[in-house]
Amino acid sequence: MRATASPQDIANVCAKIQSLGFRPHVMPGAERTAIGITGNHGPVPPAEFEDLPGVAEAIPVSKPYKLVSREVKPDNTVVDVAGCAVGGAELALCAGPCSVETREQILVSARAVKAAGAQLLRGGAYKPRTSPYAFQGLGEEGLRYLAEARAETGLGIVTEAIDVETFDLVEKYTDCIQIGARNMQNFSLLRRAGRSRKPVLLKRGMSNTLDEFLMAAEYILSEGNYQVILCERGVRTFADHTRNTLDLSVVPAVQRLSHLPIIVDPSHGTGKRDKVHPMALAAVAAGASGLIVEVHPNPDRALSDGYQSLYPSQFEVLADDCRAISDLLRKRKASADLLGRVILPVAGI
Amino acid sequence: MRATASPQDIANVCAKIQSLGFRPHVMPGAERTAIGITGNHGPVPPAEFEDLPGVAEAIPVSKPYKLVSREVKPDNTVVDVAGCAVGGAELALCAGPCSVETREQILVSARAVKAAGAQLLRGGAYKPRTSPYAFQGLGEEGLRYLAEARAETGLGIVTEAIDVETFDLVEKYTDCIQIGARNMQNFSLLRRAGRSRKPVLLKRGMSNTLDEFLMAAEYILSEGNYQVILCERGVRTFADHTRNTLDLSVVPAVQRLSHLPIIVDPSHGTGKRDKVHPMALAAVAAGASGLIVEVHPNPDRALSDGYQSLYPSQFEVLADDCRAISDLLRKRKASADLLGRVILPVAGI
Amino acid sequence: MRATASPQDIANVCAKIQSLGFRPHVMPGAERTAIGITGNHGPVPPAEFEDLPGVAEAIPVSKPYKLVSREVKPDNTVVDVAGCAVGGAELALCAGPCSVETREQILVSARAVKAAGAQLLRGGAYKPRTSPYAFQGLGEEGLRYLAEARAETGLGIVTEAIDVETFDLVEKYTDCIQIGARNMQNFSLLRRAGRSRKPVLLKRGMSNTLDEFLMAAEYILSEGNYQVILCERGVRTFADHTRNTLDLSVVPAVQRLSHLPIIVDPSHGTGKRDKVHPMALAAVAAGASGLIVEVHPNPDRALSDGYQSLYPSQFEVLADDCRAISDLLRKRKASADLLGRVILPVAGI
Amino acid sequence: MRATASPQDIANVCAKIQSLGFRPHVMPGAERTAIGITGNHGPVPPAEFEDLPGVAEAIPVSKPYKLVSREVKPDNTVVDVAGCAVGGAELALCAGPCSVETREQILVSARAVKAAGAQLLRGGAYKPRTSPYAFQGLGEEGLRYLAEARAETGLGIVTEAIDVETFDLVEKYTDCIQIGARNMQNFSLLRRAGRSRKPVLLKRGMSNTLDEFLMAAEYILSEGNYQVILCERGVRTFADHTRNTLDLSVVPAVQRLSHLPIIVDPSHGTGKRDKVHPMALAAVAAGASGLIVEVHPNPDRALSDGYQSLYPSQFEVLADDCRAISDLLRKRKASADLLGRVILPVAGI
Known about the structure:
CATH class of the largest domain in chain A: Alpha Beta
Number of helices of chain A: 11
Helix content of chain A: 25-40%
Mean pLDDT of chain A: 93
Number of domains of chain A: 2
CATH topology of the largest domain in chain A: TIM Barrel
Oligomer: homotetramer
CATH architecture of the largest domain in chain A: Alpha-Beta Barrel
Largest interface: A-D, 66 and 66 residues
């Protein structure tokens, strides 16, 4: 739509789309509003729309993903999680333990990550575990502790929903619903997340391509929830010096193809405490909009993932260093944009 | 338990296990019955059980998986799917289209694969698709067509359950519930399958290790369903001449560690029609207990996976060739067992 | 060229190619001779050749590889190694220890594999080792022991050349020069092998695609040596139940694109003794023209790769079983060719 | 050796090592000199050395690599390439075209990367190419052009040696000998590089583990050349949004285990021009000691790798941004070291 399009213009276009038997998706941007169409089997003639008032352009999308594509919505999406703007100018920092273990543990964690400048608190109440005999999370009790930590610290909450059965409960307590890597192609769960009004943090599956990652997000958007944050957390390769291979190149690759923000999880992405700090810095330098980091008040006694969790004092340094890099790059980018650099080949070579 | 243990002996051991707060799992074998214990946090003293009548041995299991392990149950498990013994002496052949598309299509397919000697019919009524806009299956209508095909041909039915929501419906119609590769670590779905009384066909995830594969099966057994068939369907690698890399070495690897039968899917495992026949033969030669193969009466018009589906006449040749190899190897193995070969190094080298 | 083309016709075509500044490659087949052209930068007009006597067709090759392509030479290449026809009707079996360790060890090995029906003896005199401090092979002393084993048993010799420096020595003693997986893209070594008159066994690199594998063979053919045997020996993946993941689907994939024979190494391809037998059978069933297997008279005392070497008595069973499968498939294929099966879709579906 | 050890003390220890039939490796560090021992088959009793004058400690090395290990030499190695200290405080920037194509092209490139602040010029005179029919480099002519560029600009030269045959020529002209990824396990070439007196830049093979990478460096050091720079250039995975997956976590992993400096190649590591800048920044943030970047005056006309080469003006921005991050992190690290942060768990959690 044109920047000058009125709400009535937008409503008219949506009505037209519905009258053709398709589904309209209104996605407001900073400058103008995009309206995606899904449900069509084959191309829709642009002329049907371009004469309507307020329509700037009708663009057929050439990719398998539509609503997540920059072709549909050129402006970056900024996702608001309890007041933290993920994808905005400021670096978003989400931190906390792998699992909520006790009331005390999560409160101490929340205070520590808040003190270090995190805006969001992570912590699993429902844990997808490789073994049926491993600790599976505290369930609703854990969700209540998270809510208590939010009440005390003001941090927004990010916690995982592992199935449709327990989704309602998670949705009720959390500020942002995490979909884990193992569930990236659990399409029923994606659909349920798409019908939520809460933002969704979608982690890349451990052997999924970029196209599959974007298609998984498309499932959520296609149900009407456009508040999706993508997250790289390492892929599975032959390399054995880390638990997973953190594929930071997916950060600029996502940013080129999609308007959705992408953050990085250097904790699962490396699986080793001493690799978290350098890879967190690298993620910020590569342009990630934020980080999600495992921090535990006493990692050696953690019920899960202790070996990759930071001590609170380590997270403090990490947060400082990451913000310093983020600030530096934002300033440099601002002056570069002012200069308007031009790229030219050398003639005759 | 000893081969001579009475049902009362077994009941006594189970009662003892329950009295300690643990969970007993009775797994009858061809020669003797094994009883698994889960729910213990740490080792259970063998002496607690070895004095009970009928107990042969109490074996602490050293692997993360317990109930699927050969340490617990040395005899091969044979899973009965509508009269077809998967894991028994005869090769199990399951074939049919990727998706149930029409009543006519599934009936024609069923007759064709029956004529070629298949015992089981495959066909998806609920399809997990990478794109939210792709054909998602006929749902219960598809299940009814499958049931009709069974009624006409006598073939057992194998079809996929993709979520807990539609599980009851699938369970009602099918003879064997398939859990697809993308859901191999959908632990809620595995638990639901574990509470079913129908056999389960569990496909290996596209980047899961053998241990993760066996742990996924353990989820099903830990809920009380011991009728699990494992299935290799190709893993994701850098190689680009096939859609996935069929990892046949997992067949003998599973057989060494677990009592569960393993079959192979050469259709998804290669993603190319002309590779299905050679890889099906290879799977049988490697010792697989069966095959699951995509066959479509008119592959070029299939709604999904047509490029990897066999023509019925191709499947007929494949089935013949596979049975011939299976027969050959069974006969050779029988004579080898009679001879009782001895393996000795050459002294002094 | 036509089947009726005379040697003079062939010479004329070659002269014509040379007069244009290109390089002719004469590759005689069972029925007719192909002449490849390399050195051209861009397409060569077919009309330049199609009017010459004896020319059947001038085919522009659309693949990056030319001389290895079936487009250039539709007939299978059969490589003669000391009387063993690799790529012919009979299964080629090459076996022996990883390294030549002592005169006694290689002689005992040679007798054992000969007794089991192998036609070729393997054994490394120069070993590429990950560590500079590991046993690097006996060098020329090892080559002499191999020659002695050949003299006694009549087996052809296959041994590895690891660099241009020691190539002449290896070439002098061996019947077939092996290029190892780590050297698959050592282009200087490939060129040297291309200038040899001895057959070459080229192993696939552990993370090389099919195209790269064929291009490596193209290096050898482009220098004038058309006697190349390809060998699959496992690729590197995330899977950890075997040392490498044996990619048997490359066997039919090579056979579709190239006229060169392909064999399989189930010893390096699995890295575990108990997986060698099932994967050897699988390789034969997939259509491999032969096997190369590590056999050691006393694997526990081997200086390298003992854990994946078979005992001689195990190899005997393996060889018997593989020949039985090979015979079975050859017979079935012969009758199938007689029947001339037709593939048809079912109308209306 | 102690910091106070005299040259005579060092000579005495070496003589003692030689008298035992082993090989001494003297590696001077900033504070003290380490002496490695190789050639021993089994442990050497520490007591043999600890009583000699100047000896601080005799440490048995538990890793398969010895001379590259931090256990042997705790201080970082700084490699001097024509005055550029790789591994020192300042970021090392090496840039230039993939191949030397013409005199003009390399001179223009050299001036451009010099102007942007690079200290080293890259450019291949001998190119390992997948196809025998692709441009293979200018050979010695290319080396002469590189030397001319050095004479004019003062930049040090880094160029690849692809085989032992042409090694002498490369060694004569270059300041640093590059060993490419495909040759990382070309052990004869590594040995030849180990006998050179010029520094070596060793690239990680595309599917090699960290241990294999360090063992390849060990080959070079074991021959007496301790001036080795390691380079991460991407590994091969299933991911298809970049040509290779840049594994930045190997940077801190190398730094933990080895004293050798490690740099990163974001050009081959991504294979896409628009990913080079973000991944270069990420590499510096992860702690890399330098970068090697493809820059071409006119990428669209490059004879190789044009699609991943930067325009000179893009490299200028990259170099500025990378130095800014490097400076920032060095300053922050310096103040952190002053503060001497302490890591403590929270008691009782």
